[in-house]
Each structure stands twice: as C-alpha cells, then as structure tokens.
Amino acid sequence: MARFTYAPAPESRAVVDLKPSYGLFINGEFVEPVDGDHFKTENPSSQEVLAEVGSAGPADVDRAVAAARRAQEQVWGPMPGRERAKYLFRVARILQERSRELAVLETLDNGKPIRESRDVDIPLAAAHFFYHAGWADKLAYAGLGPDPRPLGVVGQVIPWNFPLLMAAWKLAPALATGNTCVLKPAETTPLSALLLAEILQQAELPPGVVNIITGAGGTGAALVAHPGIDKVAFTGSTEVGKQIQRILAGTGKRLTLELGGKAANVVFDDAPLSQAVEGIVNGIFFNQGQVCCAGSRLLVQESIAEGLVEALKRRLETLRLGDPLDKNTDIGAINSMQQLDKIRELAASGEAEGAQRWSPSCSLPERGYWFPPTVFTDVVPAQRIAREEIFGPVLSVLTFRTPDEAIDKANNTTYGLSAGVWTEKGSRILYMASRLRAGVVWANTFNRFDPSSPFGGYRESGFGREGGRHGLAAYLKGALGSDRA
Amino acid sequence: MPERASGSDLADLARSEISLRRFLHGLPGVDQVGAEARAASLATRSIKAGAKLWAIDTAISMVDLTTLEGADTPGKVRALCGKARRPSPDDPTVPPVAAVCVYPDLVPYAKVALAGSPVKVASVATAFPSGRASLPVKLADVADAVAAGADEVDMVIDRGAFLAGHYGLVLDEVRAVKAACGRAHLKVILETGELVTYDNVRRACWTAMIGGADFVKTSTGKVSPASTLPVALVMLEAVRDFADASGRSVGVKVAGGIRATKDAIRYLVLVNEVAGEAWLEPQRFRIGASSLLNDLLMQRYKQQRGAYAGSQDFSIE
Hints:
The structure holds 2 protein chains of 2 kinds.
Chain A: E1 21-22, E2 24-26, E3 29-31, E4 38-43, E5 48-54, H1 58-76, H2 81-97, H3 99-110, H4 114-135, E6 149-150, E7 153-157, H5 163-176, E8 180-184, H6 191-202, E9 210-212, H7 217-225, E10 231-235, H8 238-248, E11 254-258, E12 264-267, H9 273-285, E13 297-301, H10 302-316, H11 337-352, E14 356-358, E15 374-377, H12 384-387, E16 394-400, H13 403-411, E17 418-422, H14 426-435, E18 440-443, E19 462-463, H15 468-473, E20 476-477
Parallel strand pairs in A: 1-5, 7-8, 7-10, 8-9, 10-11, 12-13, 12-17, 13-16, 15-16, 17-18
Antiparallel strand pairs in A: 2-3, 4-5, 6-20, 11-19, 14-15
Chain B: H1 10-13, H2 17-26, H3 32-42, H4 49-61, E1 63-66, H5 74-85, E2 99-102, H6 107-113, E3 120-124, H7 135-147, E4 152-156, H8 159-163, H9 167-181, E5 185-189, H10 192-195, H11 198-210, E6 215-217, H12 229-246, E7 251-255, H13 261-275, E8 285-289, H14 292-305
Parallel strand pairs in B: 1-2, 1-8, 2-3, 3-4, 4-5, 5-6, 6-7, 7-8
Helix pairs in contact in B: 3-12, 4-13, 4-14, 7-9, 9-11, 11-12, 12-13
C-alpha cells in the first residue's frame, strides 16, 4: 500500500452544458442536416454516449460552401484587416474566458487528461487566435509581397487528437488572411468544435465566415472534392492525405497536408539526463502518444542506454493512468476502439518480431479504451514498431554509437515531421539540427508548440507550414513562397 | 537518472582535488528550463480529502520548528518547545514536530524544555549563516552545540570556496564537522540561493553526501531566494541517485519561505514522485519553518470540521 495515495480530484462536469443533439453550423446558425442523418459521439474513457451530432451530406456541404463564398466576397474579404483582427481578438478572449468549459468538454469527448486539455490544448488554441489577430492588419509587412490577397474559401479537415487546437491552427490563419472556412472536425471528437461555433456566435462573427460541418470520412471527401473551394488544409493520416492529393490533382486547388510521423528523439551521453527522461515521457506519452510529432523512436547513445532505460522505467512507474477528468491523471484513454485495435496490433507485432515489451504496473479501467504506457527495448530498425506510426503510448528504443549513425538512423524513415536532440553541447545541437530531415527539431525539449513557430513536415509527413509567417503564406495569393503550399 | 559511482568507492573520489572535480563535473548537467517545467508540472497535483489530511499530519511531523534571530531569548525558545511537543493543546492527535532548531547558545534551554519528548534539538553551527570563519572556529562552534546536547547540527558550506572551485576544501570541512558531530546528525546547508545554478546545486549535494552528510539542506533562510521547488527537485534526484550508488540514504531539508500548507504539500508530492515514498518520513525529509506550523494546524482543523477556526485559536510563540 502506497503511503501517499492521492484521493480522487475530479474536475466538475457541471460546467459543461451538453445538449442531446447538435446540428451543423452553417451561415451563422445551427441547422439540421438536409437528409436528417445523425451519429453518436461517446466518451472513450467510459463508452458513455455524450450526444448526437448531425452528419453532413453533399447538400449540406453545398450549403456550407455557398455560405462561405457569400461571406468571403461580400463581408470578410473586403473587410479591412484591422476590423478582422477585432473579431479574432474577441474569439481569443472568449476562449480564455470559457477555458474550463472547453477543457472539460475536450476531455469528455477525446479522453485526454484534464491536465493536458486545461494546460496545453485550450491555452494554445487561444494563443493561436491572439497571434493571428495581430497579423490581420500587418500582412503587407509579413515579407510575403506588397499586397497579399486571400485565396477565397478554404476547406479544412482536422483530426481527433487535438480537436479544438487543430481547429484553431486551421481557422485563425485562414481568417486573419481574409479567407472564409468550411471546417470538418473528426467524427469521434466533434463537440469542442461545436462549442467553438457557439463562441463564434457570441463573438458576433459575421454569418458564413466559419461553417462547421460534422460527419465521417464521406463528409470530408465531399468537402475536399467540392468545386467551390479554393484550398484544402488537412491534418490526419498519411493514407488519407495521399487520397486527397489524388483527388485534387489537376484541379488547381491549393493544398497543405500535415500527416503522420515517426520522430526520433536522440539522446547523447552528455545530455541533461533527468530532463531527457522527462522529455522522452513527454515525447511519447503526451496525449497517450496520439500525436503526429510524437517522439516514438528513442535513439540513445549505447554508452548510457542501460542506465537511461532504467531511469525511464522508474519514472514510468509514477505515471497515473485513469479517469481523464481527475486532475492528477497523467495518462488518459485511447480515443476510439478502432485506434486501440491498431495500437494493440502493432504492439503485438513488436513482440512477435522479437523486441522486449515492458509496461509499468498499472491496472486498466474495465470500461473504455485503454492502453498502458509501453516501452520496447532490443528494437532493430527492420521491425514494424521501428518504422510504422503507432499513434499510441508505445516507445521503441534503439541505440547508436556515433553522431553520424544517429543521423542515419533518425532519417531512416519515410516521414519527416519532428525530431529531438538531447545534449549539453551547443555545437552538437546545431550539427544535428542541420542534418535531421524533419520540419521541427527540438533541442533539450520535446512537444513544445508556439503559434509563432512554423510547424510541418517533409516527405510523407506532408507539406506546407502552420504557424508563424510561413503559415500565413499558405493562405495568401501572390505570397512569396506560397506556390507549393 | 542513476549517476553511478561505477564500482569505485565514493571515498576514493575524494582522494584528490582533481578526482573530486572530475567526478563532480562528470555528473549529468541539469537543464534549467526542463527542471523548472517538471517542478511546475508536479505543483499542479491536486491533493484532496483523506490524502490532504495525511499530508498535513506528515508535514507537521517533518517540521523543524525554527527560531534564528538575534533577538532570541530563553523564554522564546521555551515557548517554541512547548509548541513543538504538542502543536495543538486541545487536540492530542496532532503529532509532535521533528525538531526545534536554534542557535548553539540556546541549545541547553531547548534541551531542558524538550526532555522526555521525541522532539530533537537541532542547532545551527559553523559561523551560521555566512560561514565566514576559520575552520577551528567553526569546529569549536559545533563542539559547543554538541556538548550542550544538540541531537542535530545544521552546518553551512563555504560558498566562497565552492564558487571558486575549491571543492576539496568544502569536502574537508564537511568531513571535519561530521567528525566533530560525534553521534549528532549532520545537516549540510548548501545555501542554494548563492550557488545560483542547478549544476552547482547538484555538485554541492554530492560533495556534502560524499563528506558524510546525513541531510542536505537548501538554505539558511537568511538569503533570498531560499528553497524553491526546482532546487528541491534537483536535490531529491541527487539523494535518490546517491542511494543507488552507495546504498546510503541521505535526507533532504527544505527551508526558508515555506509558510503555507499548499507549499508544504507541493514539496511532499515532489518527494513522493522524485525520490520515492521511502523519503516520506522525518528521518529523510524535513521542512525548516516557523509560521508554517500554524497554517498546517488551521488547514487540519478545516479539513476535519469543514470550517476555519479563528486566527486566535492557534497559539503564537
């Protein structure tokens, strides 16, 4: 029996006002889908059904795109940047004011710990609106040409791992640059986007500037294929990203893709080891590893590998898995049965292919979708767990002997989204950063995000950047460097 | 991270200034941003209900009730000792504190006032708080306190020597004081506010532990900043790793500016999740404080009865 057992400290659900049924947010109003279809969204930690949401069909996509076009041409496009900025600032402030409500709702629908939704997702979402609000009247000075113009109507499809944050990443730069949006949240996590729709109403954003249509893959496919949109921005799996690219080929529509990853987290023998352990934990167990830039491959210098893995295991024994609404929970639920199956299948392949599997002693709740933090040692580069994106709390540990071997192994992947380097030697950080083929390289930290820092990948991790000046270019015509994006 | 002495006897490291220096500089560095982020993250733990009550009682039992003023008198010390033995006169379930901490000349009064109780008498020594005196003077100070009956001695390291890189000198002083302590327990005050960097804190911890410290202690309370959560985090990692390497468990004492129950509980969470629950006892963790005790009593009352008592319901020493 542990001496210091933390009593349950659940965040109250009362702050969230869940409706039994939600419609689609089109032209500033909640409307029922034309064909009346709905689907259910559940709490992955308990499998409790939270609400019904509308399933948008082709006719709904038409309505949403038409509303967005009208708003772009008549209201939002002609509006001076300084006026657009006021709306974005207002949205940012309301996000802050209603942050507890948003955090609880995000945790209910997604399964992530309230500690993360409260301290990371929601504050960062507000930060993205604040940051881009500041750009709205300064676009001519962003170094992207003298008079950058909006693209028009943008179709945006976002994933379930950071539902509100991804909505903010997509909407804030598009709106700041004068575009209007049709956003499709993920099927398993639509609720925070619908609360965001209420917040947009509260901010009195003109009707049609943002339209939010919920639905499954078919809704997303109808949106990206719609002839009335000028650009598609997608965050999600590499597989779907490739499909979208095929659909858009030859249409002249712009595209940015932020896809999967298999990031290397490289730890040298002169690293600040206690903090490296924290960085490894944050790299792969943040949001249950359901992060495209997760540090899923730990590359550790052979001379310290044994001690580091031992320290990591000791640290993992202190992780607290359970009720995501408990303020002391570190590891929440996996978002869906489908995702849990995928994680289980890949973890089983790791064992079958000869890697050593280890998890801390923690009991999993009976209901809901759960997977324990898992570390594979004795992993070799040819195993599936060293190559495929697991998108779960599963770490593969590999070793290296020299910096160049670390670079070769880190780059030996079809992805190229992020990487981490741990060393106290500044020159080595620069050496590694210039050779790692990843859109983001973190030095002595991992999974840190800031709206001013461009985020995006190489190769099968996608193209285009989100955040910073580079992120603005992806939503502007005539912007230098925007041709590809 | 276990910083193993890799087989070599820790005492061997101290054979020369060079080998000690190499060892201390070979310890993994501390990344300031990362250490502070980790401490801040642990500070968000929410301790409620029964866990809070347990934490409050545990914190009370770890308090070194302290008075270190030029204006201290035998009367003040006697009053403090009464409080230490029985913090709450009307509630016998409140545990006594761990120790009363005073200047050496007041040890005899504390000794008498605490006779027959489990509360220890701790004395600062070695030209506290600056440590600016010759070694013979420091040792005489220690001998004085021990002769008067101190169970525990809180020494200060020579921060000037440490910052000048004379680690051997610091180590020799710790060893000499340890020898002068006899059976008394030795707490080594690092004065982390003057060491400034976490790398220095880690190195000073190891120097003190190799020298025979029973406790490493953050601060005198006379320098700002005194104890902080990240400093305590680095020290707790050091004692944990030292225990792995040597088999000997050294305690940690945080001191200075800890006044509120919520701060004390944050330290206990840190102890629990960094060093491990083996350190959750007064033999291995102490909190040097004066006004903290009344806040712990007030929160204990609130936790048990659901309402706050008046401020005059708790004695003021």
